[in-house]
Design brief:
The protein is α/β, with parallel strands linked by helices and 225 residues long. The protein contains 8 helices and 7 strands, in the order βαβαβαβαβαβααβα. Helices cover 40% and strands 19% of the residues. Strands 3-2-1-4-6-5-7 form a 7-stranded mixed beta sheet, with helices on both faces.
Amino acid sequence: MRVAVLIPALNEEQALPGVLQDLARVHDGRVVVVDNGSTDRTAEVARAHGAEVVHQPTRGYGSACLAGLGHLRADPPDVVVILDADHSDDPAEMASLLAPLQADAADMVLGERRTRAEPGALTWPQRVGNRVATAGIRAFTGHRYRDMGPFRAVRWAALERLEMQDPAFGWNVEMQMKAARAGLRVLEVPVSYRDRQAGDSKISGTVRGTIKAGTGMLRACWRYR
């Protein structure tokens, strides 16, 4: 099973080395870092650690993910793992996400953070956003999710069926709503979650970021209903 790891990154030169070093211990396949308009050395750090670098100057989490998928489409893998660049997730736990796919027990596996998150790692805006978004998805699709975490593994064929398009904070909502509607086999696997290791959060670390993310998720629930 060919696995490619996709890492959207915005000004993560401090945290990214740790992510890529940990990842190298458990993954010898492709790693694609999407530089989402960084003003620091994120791209240089990624290249120095052997990652393929895609530049997407248009800001937005979904825009970065779409650019990364577009890059992979020329030689698609069997599975895409999406992982944040802030080192809050542990790359060593990627095997837990891949195991159900290798056993043909799932089409998409989501890292569920609520069960094993370190105290304080999930901020109150993140917890509220999770509850609102998962409640919205359940209301429109009937599917119950526990989390909207970024750490996830998806079969390429399944991901292509979803025809993803959200350019911003609604990306995960769109994916999880469409997966439920498409009848994909979705599992949630508990993963650890820690305070970001370096740098500042672009979302939960600021009032503006929190409001934008929350609004984006609510809009996505309505848009993809």
